[in-house]
Amino acid sequence: MPAKLSGDPLAAFRRVTVADQAANALREALRQRTLPDPLPGEHHLARLLGISRVSLRSAVAQLVREGLISRSNGRRSRVNPSTAPRLNPVPPTVCVVCPLSRKALLTNELILELHAACAAKGMRWAEAFDAKLDVARPERQLRALVNGRTHVCWILLACSAPIQHWFARAGVPTFILGSCQPGVALPSIDFDFHATGWHAAGAIIQHRHRHIALLQSHRLLAGDLETCKGFLGYLAKSAAGATVTRVPVNSDQSNLRPRLDQLMKLRHRPTAIFSLRPDFAITTMVHLHRSGLRIPEDVSLLSRDSHPLIDSALPEISRYHGSDLLHSDRAVRFAEALLAGHGIPPKPKLFIPTFIAGGTLADHREPAAPKRAGKTGPI
What we know:
The structure is a single chain. This protein is an alpha/beta fold. 36% of the residues lie in helices and 17% in strands.
């Protein structure tokens, strides 16, 4: 049998087990405070690490011997208070959840304002812009997103009803940057879209329009629903007898131009168009101009939202404008309160947008009847 050489590097070799790797992962999680106290149950923690319960017990035993955690029979493991000062605290984080890609989002200015406001308050920033969340049952994707993250305030932007309902049940700090879907009880910050729709209908009726087209997304968000309620509610109470044609528009606007062509061929074609999205309004303005129709002489146009795309349009598009600064300031206050453990009543905080008259909403004038040629005598 050969003699063992002193200083042989192989003599110090020790195989790293699954339990050792799990213990290292748990130490790092404790250091960053990404694990709650008390620790999750054995089943959940083993599943989170992707190891067996036997390996988990061995890893936890290592941390117990090191004094990082303590445990007693019948109770879940706790972080040892004596080690807490040596652990770096996890900074507060806000994470925006949106089932759209960043390119498809029309509210980038608001996101930039909110990002800057969070940075000024010392809060970390995270984003989850993922079109894969836009499914009927997003529970699995949302669990993977949320599990293991602590000291995070979740901000829902342009989210569907299934996403809002899931976060309402999850019990994590959450508020909606927008409006709640029916049946969702979460704090929210948004413009008063019901009042906006009501005002828009009144402005169109006051300009003597009686045939109106309403351009809306094929998938109505909560704010869109409120806008339609206000808009149609005003018309229902008005004695003007106006008719409304609702036009669902695909997200890529592939059906908008053909639908506009069909509308303009009707005997009683719309003389005013109310668009729920600024990009729909831009496409409408360009297409009608190419079709030989004048705005606002032949067709009036009103946009519910403003956007840098339409701020420089000629003529200036009649629209509603809200302050991104006010929005972001209120959102940061909500995030600070929720991260501090303070409750916020599940009711909307609404802002009234400003109406910008612009130059695309004008009085409707019926075309003059053609004059009949009179009889003339010889000169």
